[in-house]
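Subject: design request, 241 residues
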């Protein structure tokens, strides 16, 4: 259970977000939202640098080689992701959510719409994959804790719109992220390749920095298309070293 700390924290934030609205009947104030975003950005930076420090090891030339490997892996991963249209898939999930958010007050809105919208946005997101793999590989729970904070804030708004069914999204989050973390940990132990794990952790760190764009609401890069680099990096590391 220790290896699922991030997922458990994520679930707790979702439940807390729903409970917060049920008790207070109001959303977070603009000031508290801004403070929360600053905290999240700080945690993203801390998490990214921690993972990067963990992933880059050895002397100067060895670390330089690892940086080159990560850069090349992200380039190849981006090409693969574009061919697979991964980011387009994520965008469709977001469009689905916006459609139901816009029709939430209509009489035709389904009772389980809140569960579907929250589950889609909380599960099918790059940070869920990055965080699950990072925790399974290096035991670093920060990415999923950060995701949990963002999901918790969203849960408050979704609960106001859809009602308490939103908190049920904690179940698929627990199932998906927990399974990904445990599967990654099992695969990592079976391979037992330190260089592959280091490359995966360093690549995850680079992707973590891009999450700042999500937290600040600025135009974002196509993070989803870079996810295949999490597979490419450890494979190249086994060939490189």
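Subject: RE: design request

Done. Sequence follows.
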């Amino acid at each position: 259970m220790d290896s699922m700390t991030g997922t458990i924290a994520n679930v707790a934030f979702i439940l807390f977000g729903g409970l917060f609205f049920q008790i207070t009947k109001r959303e977070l104030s603009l000031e508290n939202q801004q403070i929360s975003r600053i905290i999240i950005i700080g945690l993203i930076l801390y998490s990214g640098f921690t993972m990067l420090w963990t992933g880059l090891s050895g002397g100067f030339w060895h670390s330089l080689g690892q940086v080159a490997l990560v850069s090349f892996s992200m380039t190849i991963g981006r090409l693969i992701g574009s061919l697979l249209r991964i980011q387009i898939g994520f965008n469709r999930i977001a469009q689905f959510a916006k459609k139901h958010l816009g029709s939430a007050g209509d009489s035709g809105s389904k009772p389980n719409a809140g569960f579907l919208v929250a589950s889609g946005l909380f599960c099918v997101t790059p940070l869920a994959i990055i965080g699950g793999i990072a925790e399974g590989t290096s035991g670093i729970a920060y990415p999923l804790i950060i995701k949990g904070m963002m999901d918790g804030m969203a849960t408050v708004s979704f609960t106001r719109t859809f009602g308490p069914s939103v908190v049920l999204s904690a179940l698929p989050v627990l199932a998906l992220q927990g399974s990904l973390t445990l599967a990654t940990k099992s695969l990592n132990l079976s391979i037992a390749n330190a260089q592959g794990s280091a490359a995966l952790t360093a690549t995850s760190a680079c992707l973590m920095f891009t999450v700042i764009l999500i937290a600040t609401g600025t135009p974002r890069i196509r993070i989803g298309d870079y996810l295949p680099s999490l597979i490419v990096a450890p494979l190249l590391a086994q060939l490189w070293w």
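The chain has one domain: 2-240.
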